[in-house]
Amino acid sequence: ASPNALVLWEAQFGDFNNMAQCIIDQFICPGQAKWVRQNGIVLLLPHGMEGMGPEHSSARPERFLQMCNDDPDVLPDLQEENFDINQLYDCNWIVVNCSTPGNFFHVLRRQILLPFRKPLIVFTPKSLLRHPEARTSFDEMLPGTHFQRVIPENGPAAQDPHKVKRLLFCTGKVYYDLTRERKARNMEEEVAITRIEQLSPFPFDLLLKEAQKYPNAELAWCQEEHKNQGYYDYVKPRLRTTIDRAKPVWYAGRDPAAAPATGNKKTHLTELQRFLDTAFDLDAFKKFS
């Protein structure tokens, strides 16, 4: 209730927010519209397909994204002054999936520095606590630095964007699976990977710049979640609204399923490799054309 305190509620696993669903639905999601009360509570929800079974994998991002109040079919005025802050002011809550410790630091800091209060939903993969590549220089947390809504490709692909054949959009820890596979296949000049760190409000302006940077690349959304779960149904119409191209935005990820994750480790690894094969097979989407 306090507007001056940073209050965080953390689930042992993000799945366990289901026991708080009525509170989330009744008070946190519609708090300002329904009760005329701003609140800045932060929900830290460990989320990620890490082979730990159906009860310890999914924080159900699709539920939170479905309850966001932005219109997927309307491209806002991207030239508006303070576009990113105005988006935050208009939304009912903020949904992020940070892939670096620096961005995690900045999103929590921003939460208390904003001149208004909005709930913040943070998907926090447990494996990134120990991942050797999930690190941030202190230089990125000094004065003058800020939260990055989108982290663009900064490797060889970005140096010569006209050679890039595929641009992958993703969010969260799956980025590290994708970069590892890209390096193993020696495709660092052919495939660019862009991370969406803030899913809602949707960063229309930054993603438009990314798509325009790679004019010859086909576009794909990558996620480790099943197709009927995760971020795909939220991201797909917004990417189509943002990017005016004849070619569609393809999907690379797990097939639809009733359970959030398999309970078998071998099946988990097979599913992961299958979707990585799709993401980096440059002929994979031709059969859909």
Automatic annotation (TrEMBL):
Keywords attached to this entry: Glycolysis, Magnesium, Metal-binding, Mitochondrion, Nucleus, Oxidoreductase, Thiamine pyrophosphate
Residue ranges constituting the Transketolase-like pyrimidine-binding domain according to the UniProt record: 1-131
EC category: oxidoreductase
Entry-linked Pfam families: OxoGdeHyase_C (PF16870), Transket_pyr (PF02779)
UniProt record, GO biological process: glycolytic process; tricarboxylic acid cycle
EC code(s) of this entry: 1.2.4.2
Family per record: Belongs to the alpha-ketoglutarate dehydrogenase family.
Protein name per its UniProtKB record: oxoglutarate dehydrogenase (succinyl-transferring)
Organism: Elachura formosa
